[in-house]
Structure formats: C-alpha cells, structure tokens
Amino acid sequence: MQTRTLGTTGPQVSALGLGCMGMSALYGEADRAESIATIHAALEAGVTLLDTGDFYGMGHNELLIGEALRAAPAARREQALLSVKFGALRDPDGGWSGYDGRPAAVKNFAAYSLQRLGVDHIDVYRIARLDPDVPIEETVGAIAELVEKGYVRHIGLSEVGAETIRRAAATAPISDLQIEYSLISRGIETEILPTTRELGIAVTAYGVLSRGLISGHFTADRQLAANDFRALSPRFQGENLQHNLNLVEALRKIAEQKGVSVAQIAIAWVLSRGDDMVPLVGARRRDRLTEALGALDVTLDEADLRAIEEAVPADAAAGDRYPTQQMSHLDSER
Ligand SMILES: NC(=O)c1ccc[n+]([C@@H]2O[C@H](COP(=O)([O-])OP(=O)(O)OC[C@H]3O[C@@H](n4cnc5c(N)ncnc54)[C@H](OP(=O)(O)O)[C@@H]3O)[C@@H](O)[C@H]2O)c1
C-alpha cells in the first residue's frame, strides 16, 4: 500500500482512506454485513485510515466500526487509524440542529465516541463544522487537552476557510483539513490549499466522486430515498444532473482510452494533485472498494491531465455542492 503523511505533524496513512459515512447514513439503505466486510477488506488491502463522525446515524457508524474492528485479526485492528468528527447536533427524528464546539461539549463528545468505538484513543479528532458561537481557539484548545491526556493523537479540521485554519494552527499542531475536493469541487485551489501548504497541513479529501455523481455508475433515472442527501443536493436535480452527467460521459471517453474506470480517473486525479492529498473514498461494498483501490495504480501523465481538464474544466459543475441552508454552515465558503 502506498502511504502519505498527514502534514508535518500527523501520522503516516494509506494513500487512500475509507470514508464510512454511507454505511450508516445519508446515501439510503446500506447492508450491515457488507459494510463490515468492506472495512475488513480495506484493512486487508493495507488501508489504515478510517473516517467517521459521531453523528453519522447518531452513533451507528461508530458502533459499526467498533464491531468491525473487534471482529478483525489483531494485526489489522492495530493498523487502523480512526479519524472522527464531532459537533453536529441531531434530533431523534434525524434532523440537524446546529453545532457545538464548546470545550465541555468537545470532551463529552469524545468520551462517548471512545466508548462506541471501543478504543482508548482517537487518532485524528475534528469538529465537523465551525461553531459560529465558539472561537476556534477554544474548540481546538479542548482537543489539545485531550491530546495531552492521551485520548486523542492528532487534531484535524473540517470545512473551514483560510483564516480559521491559520487561527487553529496558531493554537495547536494541525495534521489535516478534511474538505470536499474533486474534479467538480475545486474551490479550495484559490486560497485554502495554498494556506494548508504554507502551514504544512495535509488535505483529506472527501466527495472525490462527488457522492457517486462522477463515479460513472450514477444514472439519471436512479430513485433516491427521501432521506438520501442527494435527493436534496443541487447537483443531483433536473437539468443540473443532466449537465453533470454529460461531464461524466466526457470523462468516460478518457477512462476507456486508458482502460480504467471513470471512478478510478476521478480518484487518481485527486491523488495527482500532490503528496499532501489523501482521498477518502465512500465505498460501502467490496466491489466499489476494489475499484477505488485500483486508482492507486493509475498514472496520469501531462497529456492525460490536459485531456481531463478539457473534459471537465474547473468550474464546469452545475449546482452548489450543498443545499443553500447547509452552504451557510461552511466557513470554507465564506
Ligand atoms: N468533513 C465533511 O464535511 C464530510 C462530508 C461528507 C463526507 N465526509 C467523509 O468523507 C467520506 C467520503 O465521502 P463520500 O462518501 O461523500 O464520497 P464519495 O466517495 O464521493 O461518494 C461515495 C458514493 O460514491 C458511490 N461510488 C460509486 N463507485 C464508487 C467506488 N468505486 N468507490 C467508492 N464509492 C463509489 C458510492 O455508491 P454506492 O455505495 O451507492 O455504490 C457512494 O454513494 C465519507 O464517508 C465521510 O467519512 C466528510
């Protein structure tokens, strides 16, 4: 397995991480046994980084990962590095009601996550969205206290902009920024990426397949459950969807010429952006995982990169990456 290092202070991780969110929430029903088999197959293939959030299925995702780790051989369990997000507040009916980054809340979230995961420490801990009522210094400071006590190893960030990154990094060492980055979500390139690079912070990129949209497997006639994130995502609606799927077809031509899949081109493109990039792929089935891992063997030369750029120019996508109300929670979009 190829490896990359999370910034100047973070751990060495597999060049691809496994994002476990879709195994519990947001993309419709998932098969529990297949999800666990996918985590095991990822560990077996040498994947070390597993990403979750305490709010993915209100604890469901952490319990699932805990179960998968307990059932894995000891050597595989020990290689797993857990990246956990906290801070999102949920309702019993599944609703979202804001963020809590107060120091006492941070410690409370961590205490429950350690229990659910069945581990004595979390490898990278981060608030999912900036709490607008709590200075980032206080939230990061609370995680730094957890680092001192050994409950957390490294501090990460998620979906924050350049100024917040600087303030966080002035408070404590930051290993990585988790943020959406893909062929059709390139907003970080202007200010955020130069800032993380200046400060020696890695990027753990999510939505590399734009939640399946640019995987090559998504079709316009796919029926989405009402609680599927994509049922409300602007990029998956009507004309936007058709426009975006046309981009995928342009990408498919390049993939076919190279004898690889569309998803592999999309993942390989993120990997090609720099050694500070670690794509988190949202595979929840073993066949999808195998496809994603295949991207590690895809080399994109200058001609490939030019052809990809022509097929999918930087601002080619139609529709925002989140619904309007959720866009307003993104410090990274300010
Ligand atoms: N920090 C944040 O704000 C934030 C936000 C969102 C996600 N995340 C993290 O990032 C992880 C990845 O995000 P994501 O799941 O949205 O990203 P993604 O990898 O862009 O999308 C996953 C979707 O792509 C589909 N897919 C098709 N082919 C695939 C393949 N070969 N490999 C993997 N997926 C394939 C899957 O479909 P099927 O399963 O339907 O086949 C799944 O619905 C999440 O699991 C989560 O841990 C973080």
From TrEMBL:
UniProt keyword Amino-acid biosynthesis, yes or no: no
Signal sequence range: none
A single MF term (Gene Ontology): oxidoreductase activity
Alphabetized UniProt keyword annotations: Oxidoreductase
InterPro entries: Aldo-Keto_reductase, NAD(P)_OxRdtase_dom_sf, NADP_OxRdtase_dom
Recorded superkingdom: Bacteria
Gene3D superfamilies: NADP-dependent oxidoreductase domain (3.20.20.100)
Any coiled-coil regions, as ranges: none
Domain NADP-dependent oxidoreductase: 16-311
GO cellular component: cytoplasm
Protein name: Aldo/keto reductase
Source organism: Streptomyces spinoverrucosus
